[in-house]
Write a structure and sequence with these properties.
Chain lengths: 376, 245
Protein backbone atom coordinates (compact mmCIF):
# COMPACT_ATOMS: atom_id res chain seq x y z
CA UNK A 1 0.00 0.00 0.00
CA UNK A 2 1.41 3.40 -0.95
CA UNK A 3 2.01 6.04 1.68
CA UNK A 4 -0.79 8.21 0.29
CA UNK A 5 -3.31 5.36 0.22
CA UNK A 6 -2.54 4.38 3.80
CA UNK A 7 -2.92 7.96 5.04
CA UNK A 8 -6.11 8.43 3.06
CA UNK A 9 -7.36 5.22 4.68
CA UNK A 10 -6.64 6.56 8.19
CA UNK A 11 -8.37 9.81 7.32
CA UNK A 12 -11.46 7.94 6.10
CA UNK A 13 -11.48 5.87 9.30
CA UNK A 14 -11.46 9.11 11.28
CA UNK A 15 -14.25 10.61 9.21
CA UNK A 16 -16.43 7.50 9.60
CA UNK A 17 -15.72 7.31 13.34
CA UNK A 18 -16.51 10.96 13.98
CA UNK A 19 -19.53 10.94 11.68
CA UNK A 20 -20.96 8.16 13.82
CA UNK A 21 -20.37 10.16 17.01
CA UNK A 22 -21.87 13.27 15.43
CA UNK A 23 -24.90 11.39 14.11
CA UNK A 24 -25.57 10.03 17.59
CA UNK A 25 -25.11 13.40 19.31
CA UNK A 26 -28.27 15.09 20.61
CA UNK A 27 -26.87 18.47 19.60
CA UNK A 28 -27.24 17.51 15.95
CA UNK A 29 -30.93 18.36 16.29
CA UNK A 30 -30.15 22.10 16.23
CA UNK A 31 -28.22 21.65 13.01
CA UNK A 32 -30.98 19.62 11.32
CA UNK A 33 -33.49 22.21 12.36
CA UNK A 34 -31.32 24.99 10.94
CA UNK A 35 -30.94 23.22 7.60
CA UNK A 36 -34.66 22.52 7.28
CA UNK A 37 -35.54 26.04 8.38
CA UNK A 38 -32.93 27.48 6.00
CA UNK A 39 -34.37 25.49 3.08
CA UNK A 40 -37.87 26.65 3.98
CA UNK A 41 -36.83 30.31 4.17
CA UNK A 42 -34.84 30.11 0.94
CA UNK A 43 -37.69 28.47 -0.93
CA UNK A 44 -40.07 31.16 0.30
CA UNK A 45 -37.55 33.81 -0.72
CA UNK A 46 -37.28 32.36 -4.24
CA UNK A 47 -41.04 32.44 -4.74
CA UNK A 48 -41.10 36.15 -3.87
CA UNK A 49 -38.40 37.34 -6.32
CA UNK A 50 -38.62 37.89 -10.07
CA UNK A 51 -36.28 38.60 -12.98
CA UNK A 52 -35.56 42.08 -11.60
CA UNK A 53 -33.51 40.47 -8.82
CA UNK A 54 -29.78 40.77 -9.65
CA UNK A 55 -29.08 37.01 -9.74
CA UNK A 56 -26.22 37.39 -12.23
CA UNK A 57 -24.40 39.83 -9.90
CA UNK A 58 -24.70 37.37 -7.03
CA UNK A 59 -23.33 34.60 -9.27
CA UNK A 60 -20.43 36.85 -10.27
CA UNK A 61 -19.69 37.68 -6.63
CA UNK A 62 -19.72 33.99 -5.71
CA UNK A 63 -17.31 33.28 -8.59
CA UNK A 64 -14.91 35.74 -7.03
CA UNK A 65 -15.27 34.15 -3.62
CA UNK A 66 -15.20 30.46 -4.51
CA UNK A 67 -11.43 30.24 -5.17
CA UNK A 68 -10.79 31.71 -1.70
CA UNK A 69 -10.78 30.24 1.79
CA UNK A 70 -9.77 26.71 0.80
CA UNK A 71 -8.00 24.55 3.37
CA UNK A 72 -6.38 21.77 1.32
CA UNK A 73 -5.43 18.56 3.05
CA UNK A 74 -2.00 17.14 2.43
CA UNK A 75 -1.82 14.35 5.06
CA UNK A 76 1.73 15.45 5.88
CA UNK A 77 2.67 14.74 9.49
CA UNK A 78 5.15 16.47 11.76
CA UNK A 79 7.40 13.42 11.83
CA UNK A 80 7.69 13.62 8.03
CA UNK A 81 10.10 16.51 8.53
CA UNK A 82 12.60 13.89 9.64
CA UNK A 83 11.50 10.56 8.22
CA UNK A 84 10.28 11.65 4.80
CA UNK A 85 13.36 13.72 3.99
CA UNK A 86 15.33 10.94 2.25
CA UNK A 87 12.35 10.16 0.00
CA UNK A 88 11.28 13.70 -0.86
CA UNK A 89 12.50 13.56 -4.43
CA UNK A 90 10.92 10.20 -5.18
CA UNK A 91 7.37 10.30 -3.91
CA UNK A 92 5.66 11.85 -6.90
CA UNK A 93 2.71 9.47 -6.57
CA UNK A 94 2.02 10.93 -3.12
CA UNK A 95 1.78 14.40 -4.64
CA UNK A 96 -0.51 13.15 -7.40
CA UNK A 97 -2.74 11.53 -4.78
CA UNK A 98 -2.91 14.70 -2.70
CA UNK A 99 -3.74 16.83 -5.76
CA UNK A 100 -6.46 14.41 -6.90
CA UNK A 101 -7.98 14.32 -3.41
CA UNK A 102 -8.14 18.11 -3.28
CA UNK A 103 -9.57 18.39 -6.77
CA UNK A 104 -12.46 16.12 -5.73
CA UNK A 105 -13.05 18.13 -2.57
CA UNK A 106 -12.96 21.47 -4.38
CA UNK A 107 -15.46 20.08 -6.89
CA UNK A 108 -17.78 18.97 -4.09
CA UNK A 109 -17.58 22.38 -2.48
CA UNK A 110 -18.55 24.01 -5.78
CA UNK A 111 -21.48 21.62 -6.15
CA UNK A 112 -22.75 22.52 -2.69
CA UNK A 113 -22.66 26.20 -3.56
CA UNK A 114 -24.40 25.45 -6.86
CA UNK A 115 -27.20 23.71 -5.00
CA UNK A 116 -28.07 27.12 -3.58
CA UNK A 117 -27.09 29.31 -6.52
CA UNK A 118 -28.67 27.43 -9.45
CA UNK A 119 -32.30 27.71 -8.26
CA UNK A 120 -31.73 31.46 -7.89
CA UNK A 121 -30.27 31.79 -11.40
CA UNK A 122 -33.00 29.67 -12.96
CA UNK A 123 -35.59 31.83 -11.20
CA UNK A 124 -34.09 35.19 -12.18
CA UNK A 125 -32.33 34.58 -15.50
CA UNK A 126 -33.64 33.09 -18.73
CA UNK A 127 -30.71 30.66 -19.06
CA UNK A 128 -30.52 27.88 -21.64
CA UNK A 129 -29.26 24.42 -20.70
CA UNK A 130 -25.84 25.23 -22.19
CA UNK A 131 -25.56 28.39 -20.11
CA UNK A 132 -26.48 26.55 -16.90
CA UNK A 133 -23.88 23.90 -17.73
CA UNK A 134 -21.30 26.61 -18.39
CA UNK A 135 -21.99 28.19 -14.97
CA UNK A 136 -21.62 24.78 -13.32
CA UNK A 137 -18.32 24.08 -15.11
CA UNK A 138 -16.99 27.58 -14.36
CA UNK A 139 -17.79 27.28 -10.69
CA UNK A 140 -16.15 23.86 -10.38
CA UNK A 141 -13.05 24.98 -12.30
CA UNK A 142 -12.61 28.12 -10.21
CA UNK A 143 -13.02 26.18 -6.99
CA UNK A 144 -10.50 23.52 -8.09
CA UNK A 145 -8.04 26.15 -9.31
CA UNK A 146 -8.33 28.06 -6.03
CA UNK A 147 -7.61 24.97 -3.98
CA UNK A 148 -4.69 23.89 -6.16
CA UNK A 149 -3.25 27.42 -6.03
CA UNK A 150 -3.19 27.16 -2.25
CA UNK A 151 -1.58 23.75 -2.47
CA UNK A 152 1.15 24.92 -4.86
CA UNK A 153 1.72 28.12 -2.90
CA UNK A 154 0.67 30.21 -5.90
CA UNK A 155 -1.24 32.83 -3.90
CA UNK A 156 -4.34 34.44 -5.39
CA UNK A 157 -3.43 33.73 -8.97
CA UNK A 158 -6.99 32.63 -9.79
CA UNK A 159 -8.71 35.88 -8.83
CA UNK A 160 -8.21 37.84 -12.11
CA UNK A 161 -9.62 34.89 -14.07
CA UNK A 162 -12.55 34.60 -11.67
CA UNK A 163 -13.19 38.31 -12.16
CA UNK A 164 -13.32 37.89 -15.96
CA UNK A 165 -15.67 34.89 -15.64
CA UNK A 166 -17.91 36.97 -13.38
CA UNK A 167 -17.90 39.87 -15.85
CA UNK A 168 -18.95 37.49 -18.65
CA UNK A 169 -21.90 36.36 -16.50
CA UNK A 170 -22.92 39.96 -15.77
CA UNK A 171 -22.65 41.00 -19.44
CA UNK A 172 -24.89 38.15 -20.56
CA UNK A 173 -22.14 35.91 -21.97
CA UNK A 174 -22.62 33.13 -19.43
CA UNK A 175 -21.99 30.35 -21.96
CA UNK A 176 -18.36 31.64 -22.35
CA UNK A 177 -17.64 32.04 -18.65
CA UNK A 178 -15.82 28.71 -18.41
CA UNK A 179 -13.06 29.85 -20.81
CA UNK A 180 -11.27 32.22 -18.39
CA UNK A 181 -11.85 29.64 -15.63
CA UNK A 182 -9.69 27.18 -17.57
CA UNK A 183 -6.78 29.59 -17.96
CA UNK A 184 -5.39 29.58 -14.38
CA UNK A 185 -4.49 25.92 -14.86
CA UNK A 186 -1.70 27.00 -17.24
CA UNK A 187 0.27 29.06 -14.67
CA UNK A 188 -0.65 26.49 -12.01
CA UNK A 189 0.88 23.75 -14.14
CA UNK A 190 4.00 25.83 -14.70
CA UNK A 191 4.29 26.75 -11.02
CA UNK A 192 3.58 23.27 -9.70
CA UNK A 193 5.96 21.87 -7.10
CA UNK A 194 8.26 19.13 -8.33
CA UNK A 195 9.10 18.04 -4.77
CA UNK A 196 6.86 18.15 -1.74
CA UNK A 197 7.15 21.59 -0.11
CA UNK A 198 7.27 19.93 3.29
CA UNK A 199 6.84 22.89 5.64
CA UNK A 200 4.17 24.56 3.49
CA UNK A 201 2.18 21.34 3.22
CA UNK A 202 2.60 20.65 6.92
CA UNK A 203 1.20 24.10 7.75
CA UNK A 204 -1.73 23.52 5.34
CA UNK A 205 -2.44 20.12 6.88
CA UNK A 206 -2.42 21.50 10.41
CA UNK A 207 -4.82 24.30 9.50
CA UNK A 208 -7.13 21.95 7.66
CA UNK A 209 -7.06 19.39 10.44
CA UNK A 210 -7.76 22.09 13.01
CA UNK A 211 -10.81 23.18 11.01
CA UNK A 212 -12.07 19.60 10.78
CA UNK A 213 -11.58 19.11 14.51
CA UNK A 214 -13.28 22.41 15.28
CA UNK A 215 -16.43 21.27 13.51
CA UNK A 216 -16.30 17.88 15.22
CA UNK A 217 -15.78 19.54 18.61
CA UNK A 218 -19.25 21.11 18.34
CA UNK A 219 -20.60 17.64 18.93
CA UNK A 220 -17.99 15.71 20.90
CA UNK A 221 -15.13 16.61 23.26
CA UNK A 222 -11.87 17.07 21.41
CA UNK A 223 -9.35 18.59 23.79
CA UNK A 224 -6.62 19.13 21.22
CA UNK A 225 -8.27 21.68 18.97
CA UNK A 226 -6.08 24.68 18.17
CA UNK A 227 -7.38 28.22 18.04
CA UNK A 228 -6.39 31.46 16.37
CA UNK A 229 -5.74 34.42 18.63
CA UNK A 230 -6.36 38.12 17.95
CA UNK A 231 -5.04 40.72 20.36
CA UNK A 232 -8.12 43.06 20.25
CA UNK A 233 -6.32 45.69 22.27
CA UNK A 234 -9.21 48.19 22.33
CA UNK A 235 -11.82 45.73 23.51
CA UNK A 236 -9.45 44.25 26.10
CA UNK A 237 -8.61 47.71 27.48
CA UNK A 238 -12.29 48.62 27.61
CA UNK A 239 -13.23 45.46 29.49
CA UNK A 240 -10.14 45.64 31.68
CA UNK A 241 -11.36 48.79 33.39
CA UNK A 242 -14.99 47.71 33.68
CA UNK A 243 -14.86 43.97 34.30
CA UNK A 244 -11.49 42.24 34.20
CA UNK A 245 -9.78 44.21 36.97
CA UNK A 246 -12.41 43.19 39.49
CA UNK A 247 -12.99 39.71 38.06
CA UNK A 248 -12.16 36.48 39.87
CA UNK A 249 -9.28 34.42 38.45
CA UNK A 250 -11.52 32.11 36.41
CA UNK A 251 -13.65 34.97 35.06
CA UNK A 252 -10.44 36.77 34.12
CA UNK A 253 -8.88 33.91 32.19
CA UNK A 254 -12.08 32.89 30.37
CA UNK A 255 -12.96 36.52 29.65
CA UNK A 256 -9.68 37.13 27.86
CA UNK A 257 -10.01 33.87 26.04
CA UNK A 258 -13.49 34.63 24.81
CA UNK A 259 -12.48 38.12 23.66
CA UNK A 260 -9.41 36.98 21.77
CA UNK A 261 -10.13 33.56 20.37
CA UNK A 262 -11.48 33.11 16.86
CA UNK A 263 -13.69 30.39 18.33
CA UNK A 264 -15.62 32.71 20.62
CA UNK A 265 -16.34 36.36 19.83
CA UNK A 266 -15.63 35.92 16.12
CA UNK A 267 -18.05 33.05 16.05
CA UNK A 268 -20.80 35.11 17.68
CA UNK A 269 -20.25 37.96 15.22
CA UNK A 270 -20.22 35.61 12.21
CA UNK A 271 -23.40 33.83 13.22
CA UNK A 272 -25.16 37.10 14.10
CA UNK A 273 -24.34 38.42 10.63
CA UNK A 274 -25.75 35.27 9.01
CA UNK A 275 -28.86 35.57 11.21
CA UNK A 276 -29.43 39.10 9.89
CA UNK A 277 -29.25 37.82 6.30
CA UNK A 278 -31.73 35.03 7.12
CA UNK A 279 -34.07 37.58 8.72
CA UNK A 280 -33.87 39.73 5.62
CA UNK A 281 -34.73 36.72 3.44
CA UNK A 282 -37.50 35.49 5.75
CA UNK A 283 -39.75 38.53 5.71
CA UNK A 284 -42.67 36.62 7.23
CA UNK A 285 -44.24 36.18 10.62
CA UNK A 286 -41.51 33.73 11.52
CA UNK A 287 -38.67 36.32 11.54
CA UNK A 288 -38.65 36.11 15.34
CA UNK A 289 -37.85 32.40 15.20
CA UNK A 290 -34.48 33.21 13.69
CA UNK A 291 -33.44 34.52 17.13
CA UNK A 292 -33.57 31.23 19.10
CA UNK A 293 -32.27 29.37 16.07
CA UNK A 294 -29.05 31.36 15.84
CA UNK A 295 -28.66 31.78 19.57
CA UNK A 296 -28.91 27.97 19.73
CA UNK A 297 -26.32 27.56 16.97
CA UNK A 298 -23.96 29.89 18.81
CA UNK A 299 -24.48 28.11 22.12
CA UNK A 300 -23.97 24.75 20.42
CA UNK A 301 -20.46 25.83 19.51
CA UNK A 302 -19.57 27.92 22.56
CA UNK A 303 -20.44 25.39 25.24
CA UNK A 304 -18.01 22.59 24.19
CA UNK A 305 -15.14 25.08 24.35
CA UNK A 306 -15.20 24.87 28.13
CA UNK A 307 -14.29 21.21 28.10
CA UNK A 308 -11.53 21.89 25.62
CA UNK A 309 -10.17 24.64 27.89
CA UNK A 310 -10.30 22.34 30.86
CA UNK A 311 -8.30 19.58 29.23
CA UNK A 312 -4.89 21.23 29.10
CA UNK A 313 -4.57 24.23 31.33
CA UNK A 314 -2.55 25.61 34.15
CA UNK A 315 -5.80 26.19 35.96
CA UNK A 316 -5.76 22.50 36.94
CA UNK A 317 -3.15 23.10 39.65
CA UNK A 318 -4.05 26.66 40.60
CA UNK A 319 -6.24 27.34 43.63
CA UNK A 320 -9.36 27.64 41.47
CA UNK A 321 -12.01 25.02 42.11
CA UNK A 322 -13.99 23.31 39.36
CA UNK A 323 -17.13 25.15 40.52
CA UNK A 324 -15.36 28.51 40.20
CA UNK A 325 -14.15 27.63 36.71
CA UNK A 326 -17.63 26.60 35.68
CA UNK A 327 -19.08 29.75 37.16
CA UNK A 328 -16.52 31.92 35.37
CA UNK A 329 -17.21 30.39 31.96
CA UNK A 330 -20.98 30.39 32.48
CA UNK A 331 -20.84 34.07 33.48
CA UNK A 332 -19.32 35.05 30.13
CA UNK A 333 -21.24 32.63 27.93
CA UNK A 334 -24.57 33.62 29.46
CA UNK A 335 -23.96 37.34 28.93
CA UNK A 336 -22.65 36.96 25.40
CA UNK A 337 -25.61 34.83 24.34
CA UNK A 338 -28.05 37.18 26.05
CA UNK A 339 -26.58 40.22 24.28
CA UNK A 340 -26.76 38.34 20.98
CA UNK A 341 -30.41 37.42 21.60
CA UNK A 342 -31.33 41.01 22.51
CA UNK A 343 -29.51 42.40 19.49
CA UNK A 344 -31.23 39.95 17.16
CA UNK A 345 -34.56 40.71 18.88
CA UNK A 346 -34.18 44.42 18.11
CA UNK A 347 -32.97 43.68 14.58
CA UNK A 348 -35.96 41.42 13.95
CA UNK A 349 -38.26 44.42 14.52
CA UNK A 350 -36.58 46.14 11.58
CA UNK A 351 -37.27 43.10 9.41
CA UNK A 352 -40.98 43.04 10.18
CA UNK A 353 -41.20 40.99 13.37
CA UNK A 354 -43.97 41.86 15.85
CA UNK A 355 -45.20 39.50 18.57
CA UNK A 356 -42.99 36.72 17.21
CA UNK A 357 -39.92 38.67 18.40
CA UNK A 358 -41.13 38.29 21.99
CA UNK A 359 -41.72 34.56 21.48
CA UNK A 360 -38.28 34.30 19.88
CA UNK A 361 -36.65 35.98 22.86
CA UNK A 362 -38.44 33.73 25.35
CA UNK A 363 -37.41 30.65 23.35
CA UNK A 364 -33.85 31.98 23.16
CA UNK A 365 -33.70 32.28 26.90
CA UNK A 366 -34.82 28.64 27.18
CA UNK A 367 -32.20 27.59 24.63
CA UNK A 368 -29.47 29.44 26.54
CA UNK A 369 -30.50 27.80 29.82
CA UNK A 370 -30.61 24.38 28.12
CA UNK A 371 -27.08 24.64 26.75
CA UNK A 372 -25.62 26.16 29.91
CA UNK A 373 -27.10 23.33 31.95
CA UNK A 374 -25.06 20.95 29.83
CA UNK A 375 -21.89 22.49 31.26
CA UNK A 376 -20.69 20.12 33.96
CA UNK B 1 6.33 22.46 55.12
CA UNK B 2 5.68 19.41 52.93
CA UNK B 3 4.96 16.15 54.64
CA UNK B 4 4.49 13.02 52.51
CA UNK B 5 3.63 9.95 54.54
CA UNK B 6 3.33 6.37 53.31
CA UNK B 7 2.07 7.48 49.93
CA UNK B 8 0.88 4.70 47.62
CA UNK B 9 -0.32 5.84 44.26
CA UNK B 10 -0.07 5.85 40.49
CA UNK B 11 -2.43 5.51 37.59
CA UNK B 12 -5.54 3.40 37.10
CA UNK B 13 -4.42 -0.23 37.05
CA UNK B 14 -0.77 0.64 37.67
CA UNK B 15 0.64 1.40 41.09
CA UNK B 16 3.83 3.42 40.72
CA UNK B 17 4.59 4.67 44.24
CA UNK B 18 5.08 2.34 47.20
CA UNK B 19 5.07 3.77 50.73
CA UNK B 20 6.80 6.97 49.74
CA UNK B 21 7.60 9.15 52.76
CA UNK B 22 9.73 12.29 52.99
CA UNK B 23 9.62 15.85 54.20
CA UNK B 24 10.66 19.23 52.92
CA UNK B 25 11.18 21.84 55.61
CA UNK B 26 11.06 25.60 55.51
CA UNK B 27 14.34 27.01 54.24
CA UNK B 28 15.23 23.84 52.34
CA UNK B 29 15.74 23.07 48.69
CA UNK B 30 15.28 19.31 48.38
CA UNK B 31 16.31 17.41 45.26
CA UNK B 32 14.05 14.59 44.13
CA UNK B 33 16.42 12.35 42.24
CA UNK B 34 15.65 9.25 40.21
CA UNK B 35 16.07 7.46 36.90
CA UNK B 36 13.54 7.83 34.11
CA UNK B 37 10.35 6.16 35.29
CA UNK B 38 11.41 6.16 38.96
CA UNK B 39 8.16 7.93 39.93
CA UNK B 40 9.35 11.53 40.35
CA UNK B 41 6.63 13.10 38.19
CA UNK B 42 4.00 10.78 39.70
CA UNK B 43 5.03 11.91 43.18
CA UNK B 44 4.73 15.55 42.09
CA UNK B 45 1.30 14.94 40.55
CA UNK B 46 0.12 13.43 43.82
CA UNK B 47 1.42 16.37 45.81
CA UNK B 48 -0.34 18.76 43.42
CA UNK B 49 -3.55 16.78 43.79
CA UNK B 50 -3.72 15.93 40.11
CA UNK B 51 -3.81 12.22 40.98
CA UNK B 52 -5.74 10.53 43.79
CA UNK B 53 -3.55 8.41 46.10
CA UNK B 54 -4.45 4.81 46.87
CA UNK B 55 -3.43 5.45 50.46
CA UNK B 56 -1.19 7.72 52.48
CA UNK B 57 -1.14 11.39 53.30
CA UNK B 58 0.21 14.57 51.74
CA UNK B 59 0.21 17.68 53.89
CA UNK B 60 1.41 21.17 53.00
CA UNK B 61 1.83 23.62 55.85
CA UNK B 62 -0.76 21.73 57.88
CA UNK B 63 -3.36 21.62 55.08
CA UNK B 64 -4.53 18.57 53.14
CA UNK B 65 -6.56 18.41 49.96
CA UNK B 66 -9.38 16.81 51.91
CA UNK B 67 -9.54 19.54 54.55
CA UNK B 68 -9.76 22.39 52.03
CA UNK B 69 -8.82 22.08 48.38
CA UNK B 70 -8.57 25.82 47.90
CA UNK B 71 -6.41 26.49 50.96
CA UNK B 72 -4.20 23.53 50.09
CA UNK B 73 -3.65 24.72 46.53
CA UNK B 74 -2.91 28.25 47.68
CA UNK B 75 0.12 26.91 49.52
CA UNK B 76 1.82 25.41 46.49
CA UNK B 77 3.00 26.70 43.14
CA UNK B 78 4.44 24.58 40.37
CA UNK B 79 6.85 24.83 37.47
CA UNK B 80 6.16 21.91 35.11
CA UNK B 81 8.78 20.27 32.93
CA UNK B 82 6.85 21.22 29.78
CA UNK B 83 5.60 24.79 29.87
CA UNK B 84 1.82 25.16 29.63
CA UNK B 85 0.61 28.65 28.80
CA UNK B 86 -2.60 30.11 27.43
CA UNK B 87 -2.28 31.25 23.82
CA UNK B 88 -4.84 33.96 24.50
CA UNK B 89 -3.02 35.62 27.42
CA UNK B 90 0.14 37.73 27.38
CA UNK B 91 2.81 36.99 29.96
CA UNK B 92 1.68 39.99 32.02
CA UNK B 93 -1.88 38.65 31.96
CA UNK B 94 -0.65 35.22 33.06
CA UNK B 95 1.00 36.91 36.02
CA UNK B 96 -2.22 38.86 36.70
CA UNK B 97 -4.08 35.54 36.68
CA UNK B 98 -1.62 34.10 39.21
CA UNK B 99 -2.10 37.17 41.38
CA UNK B 100 -5.86 36.74 41.36
CA UNK B 101 -5.70 32.98 41.94
CA UNK B 102 -3.23 33.24 44.84
CA UNK B 103 -4.66 36.47 46.29
CA UNK B 104 -1.50 38.52 45.81
CA UNK B 105 -2.25 42.24 46.13
CA UNK B 106 -1.86 44.42 43.01
CA UNK B 107 0.99 46.48 44.41
CA UNK B 108 2.89 43.48 45.70
CA UNK B 109 2.37 41.67 42.41
CA UNK B 110 3.67 44.63 40.43
CA UNK B 111 6.78 44.93 42.61
CA UNK B 112 7.56 41.22 42.36
CA UNK B 113 6.87 41.13 38.62
CA UNK B 114 9.10 44.11 37.89
CA UNK B 115 11.97 42.68 39.90
CA UNK B 116 11.71 39.08 38.68
CA UNK B 117 11.18 40.04 35.03
CA UNK B 118 14.31 42.19 35.20
CA UNK B 119 16.36 39.47 36.81
CA UNK B 120 15.17 36.87 34.31
CA UNK B 121 15.63 39.25 31.36
CA UNK B 122 11.96 38.99 30.45
CA UNK B 123 10.92 42.66 30.78
CA UNK B 124 10.50 43.13 27.03
CA UNK B 125 8.44 39.96 26.75
CA UNK B 126 5.87 40.87 29.40
CA UNK B 127 3.35 42.05 26.82
CA UNK B 128 4.04 39.31 24.30
CA UNK B 129 1.78 36.35 23.58
CA UNK B 130 3.30 32.88 24.20
CA UNK B 131 2.97 31.94 20.53
CA UNK B 132 6.05 34.07 19.75
CA UNK B 133 8.12 32.80 22.70
CA UNK B 134 11.14 30.57 22.15
CA UNK B 135 11.36 27.31 24.11
CA UNK B 136 13.56 28.95 26.76
CA UNK B 137 11.27 31.97 27.04
CA UNK B 138 8.27 29.71 27.64
CA UNK B 139 10.14 28.02 30.46
CA UNK B 140 11.18 31.37 31.92
CA UNK B 141 7.55 32.53 31.71
CA UNK B 142 6.44 29.49 33.73
CA UNK B 143 9.15 30.17 36.31
CA UNK B 144 8.13 33.83 36.55
CA UNK B 145 4.47 32.89 37.03
CA UNK B 146 5.35 30.50 39.84
CA UNK B 147 7.82 32.77 41.62
CA UNK B 148 5.49 35.79 41.83
CA UNK B 149 3.07 33.76 43.97
CA UNK B 150 5.60 33.32 46.81
CA UNK B 151 3.70 30.28 48.10
CA UNK B 152 5.10 28.36 51.11
CA UNK B 153 6.00 25.43 48.83
CA UNK B 154 7.39 25.56 45.31
CA UNK B 155 7.54 22.38 43.25
CA UNK B 156 9.83 22.35 40.26
CA UNK B 157 10.00 19.58 37.69
CA UNK B 158 13.22 19.53 35.65
CA UNK B 159 13.60 23.32 35.61
CA UNK B 160 16.77 23.54 33.56
CA UNK B 161 15.42 22.05 30.32
CA UNK B 162 15.68 24.64 27.54
CA UNK B 163 17.41 27.29 29.66
CA UNK B 164 20.71 28.90 28.68
CA UNK B 165 23.60 28.80 31.21
CA UNK B 166 23.00 32.39 32.28
CA UNK B 167 19.33 31.71 32.94
CA UNK B 168 20.18 28.56 34.92
CA UNK B 169 22.53 30.52 37.14
CA UNK B 170 19.92 33.26 37.61
CA UNK B 171 17.25 30.71 38.42
CA UNK B 172 19.40 29.02 41.04
CA UNK B 173 20.06 32.38 42.67
CA UNK B 174 16.33 33.05 42.73
CA UNK B 175 15.73 29.62 44.28
CA UNK B 176 18.30 30.36 46.99
CA UNK B 177 16.46 33.57 47.75
CA UNK B 178 12.97 31.98 47.54
CA UNK B 179 13.73 29.18 49.96
CA UNK B 180 14.71 31.56 52.77
CA UNK B 181 11.16 31.67 54.08
CA UNK B 182 9.63 28.91 51.92
CA UNK B 183 10.49 25.39 50.78
CA UNK B 184 11.37 23.99 47.36
CA UNK B 185 11.09 20.46 46.03
CA UNK B 186 13.00 20.09 42.78
CA UNK B 187 13.07 17.06 40.54
CA UNK B 188 16.13 17.00 38.31
CA UNK B 189 18.53 14.82 36.36
CA UNK B 190 21.35 17.32 36.48
CA UNK B 191 23.11 15.96 39.54
CA UNK B 192 26.10 18.29 39.41
CA UNK B 193 23.89 21.35 39.73
CA UNK B 194 21.65 19.64 42.29
CA UNK B 195 24.68 18.79 44.43
CA UNK B 196 25.74 22.43 44.56
CA UNK B 197 22.35 23.90 45.37
CA UNK B 198 20.18 21.32 47.15
CA UNK B 199 20.26 21.03 50.92
CA UNK B 200 18.99 17.46 50.93
CA UNK B 201 18.22 14.67 48.48
CA UNK B 202 15.46 12.10 48.16
CA UNK B 203 16.52 9.17 45.95
CA UNK B 204 13.58 7.48 44.30
CA UNK B 205 13.95 4.12 42.59
CA UNK B 206 11.07 2.12 41.10
CA UNK B 207 8.57 4.06 43.16
CA UNK B 208 10.40 3.55 46.47
CA UNK B 209 12.47 6.04 48.48
CA UNK B 210 15.83 4.31 48.76
CA UNK B 211 17.76 7.10 50.45
CA UNK B 212 17.09 10.45 52.01
CA UNK B 213 19.52 12.95 53.51
CA UNK B 214 22.23 15.52 52.96
CA UNK B 215 25.20 14.70 50.72
CA UNK B 216 27.45 13.98 53.72
CA UNK B 217 24.78 11.80 55.37
CA UNK B 218 24.40 9.82 52.16
CA UNK B 219 28.20 9.40 51.83
CA UNK B 220 28.24 8.06 55.34
CA UNK B 221 25.30 5.75 54.69
CA UNK B 222 27.00 4.20 51.64
CA UNK B 223 30.50 4.33 53.16
CA UNK B 224 31.90 6.57 50.45
CA UNK B 225 34.93 8.89 50.74
CA UNK B 226 34.42 12.59 51.40
CA UNK B 227 35.24 13.57 47.83
CA UNK B 228 32.52 11.29 46.38
CA UNK B 229 30.18 13.32 44.20
CA UNK B 230 26.39 13.06 44.19
CA UNK B 231 26.80 11.16 40.93
CA UNK B 232 28.95 8.53 42.72
CA UNK B 233 26.52 8.31 45.65
CA UNK B 234 23.59 7.89 43.31
CA UNK B 235 25.23 5.09 41.31
CA UNK B 236 26.17 3.21 44.49
CA UNK B 237 22.66 3.71 45.92
CA UNK B 238 21.03 2.28 42.80
CA UNK B 239 23.49 -0.65 42.59
CA UNK B 240 23.08 -1.61 46.23
CA UNK B 241 19.30 -1.37 45.91
CA UNK B 242 19.32 -3.62 42.84
CA UNK B 243 21.63 -6.12 44.52
CA UNK B 244 19.47 -6.33 47.63
CA UNK B 245 16.25 -6.83 45.63
Amino acid sequence: MSRFTSRLGSWMEDVVKYSRYVANGGLLFTLYFTLIYGAFVYNDFLTRIDSAFPGEWIAAAIMLLIPLGHRPRTFIQEADQVFLLPELGEIRSYMVGVRAFNVVFAGLRAMLVLLILLPLLVRTEAYTGIEVLAVVVTMVLLSVAGRLAKLEGAGRIVLPFALVSGLLIVTGLASWSFVPAFLPFVPLHLKRNERIPLLHWLALEEKSKAQFERVISWFIDLPTVREDVKERRFLTKMLENRVLRRAEASQYVYGLRIIRSSDSLDLVIRLTAVALVVMWMSGGWYVGLVIPLFVGLTALQLVPLFKRLEAVSIVSWLPITKEERLRGYTWWTYRILLVQALFLGLASLLFGATWDAAIGLILSFGVIRYYLNRLT
Amino acid sequence: MLHVERLNGGYIGKQVLHNVSFEVNKGELVGLIGLNGAGKSTTIKHILGLLDPLSGKVEIDGETLESSEKNYRKKVSYIPETPILYDTLTLREHIELMGKAYDVGQEELLTRTTRLAKEMRMEKQLDWFPSVFSKGMRQKAMILCALVTKTPLLIVDEPFVGLDPLAIRQLLQLFDEYKQDCAILMSTHILETAERHCDRFVFLHQGVVIANGTASELREQYELPEDATLDDIYVVAIESEEQSS
